[in-house]
User: Fold this.
Amino acid sequence: MPRPKLFFLKPLLVTSIRRLTQTAKEPVLSGAALTVITNPYQAKKVWPPKMTELTPQQQLRFEKKMKRRLRLVYHRPKWDKAVLLVQYTFMVACVVSFVFFSDFEFWCDEYRPSDEMRKYVQTVFGTMDPDKRFEGSLHSFPREQSTTK
Assistant:
């Protein structure tokens, strides 16, 4: 019986054994920090560019690019929303306090529209009016009756 020809196995085995017995290659960065000197990759452009050496068109393009990048980097939607809410709250509080605590006199008249609003809010929207406070409760106090007969 003829022996099978395994001619393709010999180079495969020799190569595998040779690779297994080799020592590992030195890594590019042997624990050193990546600096300008130890960086294996060269920069394509000098950074930051010298603005005096750029044409006005290149300066404009550079400024647009940097503004866009800064806008993307410093975009904080939650912070922006919180700041807007605080601003609107202060504006509404200023308007409300101006209306409630103002003492307008319209055309030298003693009537002040803010008095009615103030009274309404001070009595917790009409539910705690001092005159009507004990109406309908178990502890209602008798009202003084007029004694005119």
Summary: The mean pLDDT is 77.
